Amino acid sequence: AGTLDDVKARGKVNCGTNTGLVGFAAPDANGEWQGFDVALCRAVAAAVLGDHSAVEFVSTTGRTRFTALASGEIDLLVRNTTWTFTRDVDLKFTFVGVNYYDGQGFMVPKSLGVTSAKELDGATICIQTGTTTELNLADFFRTNNISYEPVPIETNAEGQQQYLAGACDAYTTDISGLAATRATFEDPTAHVILPEIVSKEPLGPLVRHGDDEWADVVRWTLFALIAAEEYGVTSANIDELVANPASNPEISRLLGTEGDLGPMLGLSVDWAVKAIKAGGNYGELFEKFIGQNTPIGLPRGLNAQWTDGGLLYAPPFR
Amino acid sequence: MTMMTAPPKQTFRVGMLIHDTRYRSLTIQIVVLSAAMLMAAWLINNTIQNLAVLGKPISFGFLSSAAQYDINQMLVSYTNQDTHLRAAFVGLLNTLLVAVLGCALATVLGVLIGVLRLSKNWLVARLMTAYVEIFRNVPVLLWIVFAMAILIETLPTPRDFRGEEATASMLLGDSIAITNRGVYIPEPLFSRSLGDLPLPGAVAISLDLVAILALLAGGLAASAAIRRRAERIQNATGKRPATWHLRLGVIVLPQAALLAALGFHLGYPELRGFNFQGGIHLRNSLLALWLALSFYTAAFIAEIVRAGILAIDRGQTEAAAALGLRPGRIMRLVILPQALRVIIPPLISQYLNLTKNSSLAIAVGYMDITGTLGGITLNQTGRELECVLLLMLVYLAISLIISAVMNWYNARVRLVER
Amino acid sequence: MSDPSNARDIDRSRMAVRDEVAIRIAGMNKWYGSFHVLRDIDLTVHVGERIVVCGPSGSGKSTLIRCINRLEEHQSGSIVVDGIELSSDLKNIDKVRSEVGMVFQHFNLFPHLTILENCTLAPIWVRKVPRREAVETAMHFLEKVRIPEQALKYPGQLSGGQQQRVAIARALCMRPRIMLFDEPTSALDPEMIKEVLDTMIALAEEGMTMLVVTHEMGFARQVANRVIFMDQGQIVEQNAPEAFFGNPQSDRTKLFLSQILGN
Amino acid sequence: MSDPSNARDIDRSRMAVRDEVAIRIAGMNKWYGSFHVLRDIDLTVHVGERIVVCGPSGSGKSTLIRCINRLEEHQSGSIVVDGIELSSDLKNIDKVRSEVGMVFQHFNLFPHLTILENCTLAPIWVRKVPRREAVETAMHFLEKVRIPEQALKYPGQLSGGQQQRVAIARALCMRPRIMLFDEPTSALDPEMIKEVLDTMIALAEEGMTMLVVTHEMGFARQVANRVIFMDQGQIVEQNAPEAFFGNPQSDRTKLFLSQILGN
Amino acid sequence: MPGQPFVRSHMLPERAPPATAAGPLLWLRENLFSSWFNAILTLLSLGFVWYVLAHALPWIVQSSWTANSLTECRQQIAASHGPGTSGACWAVIRERYLQLIFGFYPSRLYWRPILAFGLTLAALAPILFPALPRRLLWLSSTVPFLVPWLLWGGSLWLPVSIALGAVLGYAALRLVTPLAGSLAGVIAAGLVPVLWWLFGAGPATGLLQSALPLAIDSVQSRAFGGFMLSITIGIVAITCSLPIGILLALGRQSDLFIVKTLCVGFIEFIRGVPLITLLFVASLLLNYFLPPGTSFDIILRVIIMVTLFAAAYMAEVIRGGLAALPRGQYEAAAALGLDYWKAQRLIIMPQALKISIPGIVSTFIGVFKDTTLVSIIGLLDPLGFSNAIRADTAWNGIVWELYGFIAALFFVFCFAMSRYSMYLERKLATEHR
Ligand SMILES: Nc1ncnc2c1ncn2[C@@H]1O[C@H](COP(=O)(O)OP(=O)(O)OP(=O)(O)O)[C@@H](O)[C@H]1O
Ligand SMILES: Nc1ncnc2c1ncn2[C@@H]1O[C@H](COP(=O)(O)OP(=O)(O)OP(=O)(O)O)[C@@H](O)[C@H]1O
Ligand SMILES: [Mg+2]
Ligand SMILES: [Mg+2]
Questions:
Q1: I need a labelling partner for E177 at 20 to 30 A (CA). Which of B385, C226, E80, E163 fits?
Q2: B chain contacts of residue D36, beta-carbon cutoff 8 Å
């Protein structure tokens, strides 16, 4: 049977997440997982099962995440995983979209007086292993013909600890991670993120190869969140919009008041409504977990809607 | 003396497969063997099917493709353009390095602590007991991350060495820098170096090192010859000539001459750019792993040493003393040879444990074989089956070699009994 | 209790006692912690004397003879062995120990060395005798205790009686002038006791000064020229063996003898 | 050597030997590896016979009786016990073992079980006797060996002699028709030997077929109706005890007897 | 002149030793300052103790218990102890200790793991302390079925029907042995429960459950975390590894060549590789080895691998116990007509296991400590959880307090157990056997 049927039969979505990444996935004091990646899992659960809490979170490490997905232990993996050719083709996964456009950057203490990554010749650099980061780093320094001393570390918490204690001159990971980390410093202003972005890191949810129904569900749940923001559908006004269908037919189709997109996916008519109500649209989630008003304080940047000059672009719902 | 009469011929009945002791064991073994083979066949069949479903047939081809990642510590040359196989080899050498360093330090500490635990000094004995209890009752992984945290958080950064109001300074006449990025110590350099000796497999060995080792071996042999001569003299006259200065001389003097000839000098680390440059860099990851494994294992070794010494009957010491032997001689001639027999086997199995525990290197980012082959290579290539199997084989080989040595030793020193 | 007197006649010709003093103990006291083990011991042993020490368990016999080669320290009084006063001076201790041989109840052979090596170890390392000579001496004494053919075996391969004889040979190899024995036969099976006692008798015949803690009364009668009875850390009675066994004076001695001979 | 003949008069009335054959060993050989331990053993034991086996150490006595209940396998010849031929068939082995009781030199009681449990274990698990009945039998035999009051103690709390008597009771609880004893008294202190021998004599008086390896010649004289002397894996001489001790034929027997009795 | 005859007329009383040989001064001199070398050691040790206490105590004491984030902690400490004081932020422990202990286990159900743990202790008591009444062993035999049910929840009928498997095995043993011999009996006793568990237990549970619903809330093993996870893995692994270890040890001791080779191969293989590689197998490879489509929970997989790991070590411990038994025990059992399995069950194993208890306890300590390794494959044991807590914005950057708390908990557990095993060793050494 397909994953969608399995999930419905089980009544739970098994969602692979990070073991702990500030802003994206971490358990709170009540043992509830919270974060930007986590919210996507909840939206999928809401869309499929109508209950945003019907999720089992499986914490995975860089080493175990793909096996967990391949073996069927989890139904989807939302763990700041970069969409690459080999992962998509050789490792046989399907990336269903991008929920965060990231890029690898460097953070250094202001006091170091460095303004460009190219000045980092001979520097000690902390990198989180098990990601594409170490490959990008190797490539960057090789192409610029400068040397560095890599300090591999397992988790972001350790990377931050080493960086703060001065055990490395620079810390490199995805810009989002850098910003999130910097935000928790006692004095965030004492650290700068260097302008170089050495890689493209489209982070997105992925599912197993060959289960297109399930891939569609996850893909369009993500798009529903993005489209909702584009059309101004928020968790606050969605009930009203459902009750009084607006003039925009795109919104009506998205919310299921018109057409039957949901049943085509094998879901209920109001699947998108539930997904959006689970935590809000893309913009709401962004602001809630990683946006400017959170301690992490990420700007929208590339992750703004295409209408605002960003890269977020949901295909039409029709 | 007697003719063997053949056992009476019996007709074979099926029931005898179970009831007859001669056939019974055969029956059991065949049943067990076929069950085991069935099980193995089932597992292998499942694996093949699963791999087919995933479209990932077993292949070790990835080992010869470029690794593309950097390793900060290597004992042989390596760049990110080298193969995964070479990365694994670098990792293996790093595993062996930390294992050897760890065993050495753990032994020294363990023996010291084990002996001090037997000390008549109440305070020292108590402290050592506390040491043993604290270290062996907390998981080694916790000790490793703890050690790393201590190194990082309590030591000065290179920046602290810089400028007018430096808060930290180098030790021993600016030759050693202890920083939270590791310890920098002077490195030996040769101004008239003999160059490298390339070996197959792109491994190069420094000829200087070869020369030094060869001379050292020669010196040791000469020293042994002097010792044997002293022994002969003792056997002949009963007087043992003092030879330590001679023996030291034949080892040290030629070395000194060779080093002078090679233009030996030390390369001191100095603060340049972001880091100390030059010298040998003992990285935090290595230090943390090394110290944590050594301190943890030392607690076990201390217990082994203590038990070994206690296992020797007091009567042995008394008998030796009654013969007029001095305490030092009693230790060397009577107690140690016996205690070592008791100590060495469990000691070697502690070495084995330490080597296996060194696989926890990944917790601090030390690039041992688990970190390279079982870590980044596995992640980058997605070849779990091949990587983990290779990894297990490597550890198994190391273990089997160590236990072969242990068995050989046990067989050699076993006390002769009736 | 086996009675070696039937076994062979004793040659008493060389067993004369000389006037020279081998051991002189005067007013010696010893405590273990606050437990008073040896109380005011006075004892003079002449060269050539063969003294048997007996007494109930825990009476301090072992402690007494262990004090003589300073395996135990005494706290007051004096012990002079072969003219050397035992003090905490290491040199004195060494000298005394190479003059005094000791044989233990549990043999205490070194299990990692062959019989021959057991016997040559101390001569080579303490007396600094050339190995050849040490081996010759060792073989000589091993012959004396009648096990030269075992020289290359290990202690673990020998029976208890053989091991004890090796222990005697080992002590003799240091050519001591005084031999101490602490219950040398009590860990042995009955058949083996005889062979060890025979060896000790042979030693006595050669005029060795001997202090023997033992309950082998046959041996005492035959060989000793004085029997000392200890109780509660004190010497209660001493006498020639005939007198001691025939006509014990003290009540304690009588009680002890009745127990031990009645058995 | 203690001599139980003084102890009590033996009732020989029931000790008659019947014509029935209990054990028949014919042309039996056994090797340990390439070492030929038992050579062409022929031996017939009738019901009610009491046979003492003696001989020097290493002559194969233990091996012989261990072959009889197949603790050791023989390689050629035949052993028929109580009409059952010993072969590699497990069922036969089980049958024979429950017909034959065995008492070892070192008792081999099960230290984790009480005396009573030691005695009831095999009847319950092998003979499938109800527990109540097994306990009754056990108490009966424990009374016979005169230690019923120890039934609830553990073996470690008993003296050696008591332990050996329990071992005999334990074997008897299986109601064997033949009893094998392998030096049942040689690990015991002299005082305890007597009590065990008394127990065995009592057993003999009841007409039990017994094969006893022992050097207790007093016991042999008093109880045995045949003494077998073994040397180098062969039966060298067998005879009624009076004849065996009074007039040994073989030189080896004479030598052995002189050693063992002279001691 | 030989000594004169001498008879003591009166016995000397016991006297006190001279002043230099007793009293507290003597104790000091003998134990701390008996030589200049010892005196130096004493001073060095005192210095070391002072150094450690002087640094650790203020940090431990000048702490904050009430803050809600690390920043708040720093402010509170600076406020109450002056700026620049470094102090512990125990507030994180106050906020998260339940998580560190129970993981994500639903807080209203905390009583279940607590009860399960208590039951386990109660069940162990009669095994560990022979003085307790033997009747408690009945409790011990039900607990292995009860505890998993309490932890994972679900239908009561599941543990019942699993226990039924054990009963069926026993029944098979009793039925088959008289008919077809003890070997067949043992095989049947092994086979019947396995078949029942594979094919019978599921439907039976369903049937019973529909007939009489008796169930408690079920909890996914994903919710397990913190110390509960460590203890669960440790206890389940040790309990399950015991029978496997016994079989392996018997196999290794047997003179059947193939059986022996297989057992030796298995034991040496498992002991030759680090546990972490076995955990990799659990997390990465186990799915390859099972039929396509089967996938079960990572914690179960980890428990399986840790069980195999413990079994190999257990086998060696038990082999030591077997080797310590005198041959006479085997022979006496055989001479009484007990067959191999009966002799093992009634005579050999009870003694061998008793001798092995200290070794088993040590193995357990080792396995319990090694459960921290599961954090490397992403399970949230205490160490893994500490990382997750550090990923919380409020506590990002906290280190020592968490490590200290975890280390202290492990220490308390392991120390208690190692004391127990020492007590046992002493007892076994003095006990008459
Ligand atoms: N190292 C020691 N520490 C404390 N007390 C001791 C020590 N050695 C012996 N004792 C005690 O001193 C007393 C005398 O012991 P000693 O061994 O000299 O007796 P013994 O006469 O040789 O007895 P036995 O015939 O049992 O060997 C005993 O009460 C003993 O318990
Ligand atoms: N398991 C064995 N393997 C090899 N040789 C053995 C074994 N058991 C006994 N032997 C040898 O077989 C010979 C006969 O042994 P057995 O125990 O039967 O002698 P015994 O007459 O009972 O001697 P003892 O009076 O010492 O008990 C001895 O030489 C012994 O060394
Ligand atoms: Mg004594
Ligand atoms: Mg025998």
A1: E163
A2: 1-2
pTM of the model: 0.85
Q: Count other Cβ atoms within 10 Å, centred on residue D47.
A: 18
Kindly list the protein residues whose Cβ atom lies closer than 6 A to any atom of ligand 1. C 32, 35, 37, 55, 57-63
pLDDT band at D11 (very low <50, low <70, confident <90, very high): low
DSSP bridge partners of A269 = none
Q: Which of D155, D192, D149 minimizes the C-alpha distance to D170?
A: D155
Residues of D in contact with B24 (CB under 8 A): 90
DSSP E323: H
Q: Which residue of A has its CA nearest to B285?
A: A151
Q: What is the pLDDT of residues B23-72, one digit of tens each?
A: 778 888 888 899 999 999 999 998 888 888 777 788 888 888 888 888 88
> Are C157 and B321 within 8 A, CB to CB?
no
User: A312 with A318: CB under 8 angstroms?
Assistant: no
Beta carbons within 8 Å of E317's beta carbon, 6+ residues apart: E245, E356, E359, E360, E362, E363
Domain boundaries, given as residue ranges, for chain B? 63-152+284-413, 205-263
Taking contacts as CB-CB distances below 8 angstroms, the residues of chain E near B18 are 180-181, 183-184
pLDDT digits (tens, 9 = 90+) for D134-179: 999 999 999 988 888 989 888 888 888 889 999 999 999 999 999 9
CA of E3 to the centre of ligand 3 (A): 23
Tell me if D123 is assigned to some domain: no
**Taking the CA atoms of chain D, what radius of gyration do you get in angstroms?**
18
- The count of other CB atoms within 10 Å of the CB of residue E54 is 9
Q: List the beta bridge partners of residue C249.
A: none
Q: Which two tokens stand for residue B310?
A: 């206690």
Task: Read off the CATH number of the domain in which C79 is found.
Answer: 3.40.50.300
Beta bridge partners of B187: B267
In this structure, is residue C41 part of a structural domain? yes
pLDDT of residue E21: 58
Strand order, beta sheet including D100-103? D100-103, D178-182, D209-213, D50-54, D226-231, D234-239
| β pairing state of D76-81 and D226-231 | unpaired
Distances from the Cα of E108 to the Cα of B235, E102, E105, E146, E256, angstroms: 82, 11, 9, 19, 54
CA C210 to the chain's CA centroid: 6
Q: What is the pLDDT of residue E270?
A: 93
Q: Is E378 on the interface with A (CB under 8 A)?
A: yes
Q: Is residue D110 part of a domain?
A: no
Q: Where are the alpha helices (DSSP H) in E22-155?
A: 24-31, 36-61, 70-81, 91-102, 111-128, 137-152
Average pLDDT over residues A53-72: 85
- The per-residue pLDDT for range D206-215, each reduced to its tens digit, is 889 999 998 8
Find how far residue B259's CA is from the centre of its chain: 29
Tell me, yes or no, whether C239 lies in a domain.
yes
ipTM: 0.83
> What percent of chain A stands above pLDDT 70?
99
pLDDT for position B3:
41
Residue C70 Cα, gap to closest chain B Cα (Å)? 8
Q: Residue A206: how many CA atoms within 13 Å on its side-chain side? A: 26
- Cβ–Cβ contacts within 10 Å for residue A258, how many? 14
How far is residue A306's CA from residue A285's CA, in Å, rounded to a whole number?
Answer: 17
Percent of chain B as helix, strand, coil, to the nearest 5: 65, 10, 25
CATH hierarchy code of domain B63-152+284-413: 1.10.3720.10
Q: Which domains does chain E have, with CATH numbers?
A: 69-77+86-105+222-433 (1.10.3720.10)
- Please give the torsion angle defined by the CA atoms of residues D218, D221, D225 and D227, in that order, rounded to the nearest 10 degrees: 80
3-state secondary structure of B283: strand
C176-221: pLDDT as tens digits: 999 999 988 877 766 678 888 888 888 888 889 999 998 888 888 8
D71, D111, D157: residue with CB nearest E334: D71
Look up the domain containing C51 and give its range. Answer: 21-105+177-262
